[in-house]
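User: Please fill in residues for this 294-position structure.
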């Protein structure tokens, strides 16, 4: 049995997979935001309860919103900032008395979608998560590409290409990161800054569908920015498929609009890269975490 845990900014989810990949159990609890000991307790509680209820012990992989420093072994680059500087893997191994494998949550997402998801069979897959933050993961021929610095795919902390009137600050210390524009909080900030109400992305999309001009304009800005950011990914990686995950991946109009917009930015006379919605939805990250033991 393989256990996967997705440590998200708002929830922690666990899945148990049998050897034939059948799902045996899935549960989630709220993330104790800002509370590192509480986060450890939540993860260990989920693992202990799952193994008790299923009557067997499993391997454990965990997807995290950041990466493990190859210099210190501690967490870096996490938008769940209370994890930064913590020895997460070592602490969990001590508490759970087994080896634990960690990977960036976007890598786990990309692995799941490349294995049997929307991009199954594709040679090179870029998985982009658009949610509380913006993450990216790369899978090449069925294997996660972590990179020499464990940051492969981290497009969210490059500066958004193009010109903007305002370059908002990012938690990472830079200004104008892709994440500050393309995350859910980024869309909400942009809408309010351009004279709209303080609305979450689903509400903005609903009002736009009802003909609200300000909400329609916010979505147009978002589409253009996403196209500019993904065009850079295509120019560097040239993936067979880009798969979207996270809450903003549910904006169905993106799959039609964005490829039409990115074509002008891609260094090719045609763009064959497929732009796909994830097949497994918000379960992809936790499934990919379990498959870290594949």
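Assistant: Residues filled in for all 294 positions:
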């Amino acid at each position: 049995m393989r256990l996967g845990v997705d440590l998200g900014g708002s929830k922690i989810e666990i899945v148990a997979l049998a050897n034939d990949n059948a799902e045996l159990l899935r549960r989630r609890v709220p993330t104790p935001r800002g509370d590192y000991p509480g986060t450890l307790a939540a993860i260990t509680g989920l693992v202990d309860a799952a193994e008790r209820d299923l009557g067997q012990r499993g391997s454990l992989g965990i997807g995290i919103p950041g990466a493990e420093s190859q210099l210190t072994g501690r967490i870096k680059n996490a938008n769940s900032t209370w994890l930064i500087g913590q020895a997460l893997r070592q602490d969990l191994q001590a508490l759970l008395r087994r080896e634990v494998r960690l990977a960036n949550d976007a890598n786990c997402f990309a692995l799941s979608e490349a294995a049997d998801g929307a991009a199954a069979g594709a040679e090179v897959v870029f998985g982009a998560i658009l949610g509380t933050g913006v993450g990216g993961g790369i899978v090449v021929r069925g294997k996660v590409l972590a990179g020499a610095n464990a940051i492969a795919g981290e497009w969210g902390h490059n500066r958004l290409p193009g010109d903007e009137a305002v370059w908002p600050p990012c938690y990472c210390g830079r200004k104008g990161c892709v994440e500050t524009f393309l995350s859910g909080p980024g869309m909400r900030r942009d809408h309010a800054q351009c004279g709209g109400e303080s609305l979450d992305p689903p509400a903005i999309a609903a009002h736009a569908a009802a003909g609200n001009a300000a909400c329609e304009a916010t979505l147009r800005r978002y589409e253009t920015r996403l196209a500019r950011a993904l065009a850079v990914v295509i120019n560097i990686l040239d993936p067979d498929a880009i798969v979207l995950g996270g809450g903003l991946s549910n904006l169905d109009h993106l799959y039609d609009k964005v490829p039409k917009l990115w074509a002008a930015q891609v260094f090719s006379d045609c763009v064959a890269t497929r732009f796909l919605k994830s097949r497994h939805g918000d379960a992809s990250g936790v499934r990919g975490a379990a498959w870290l033991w594949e």
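For context: The chain has nine helices and twelve strands.
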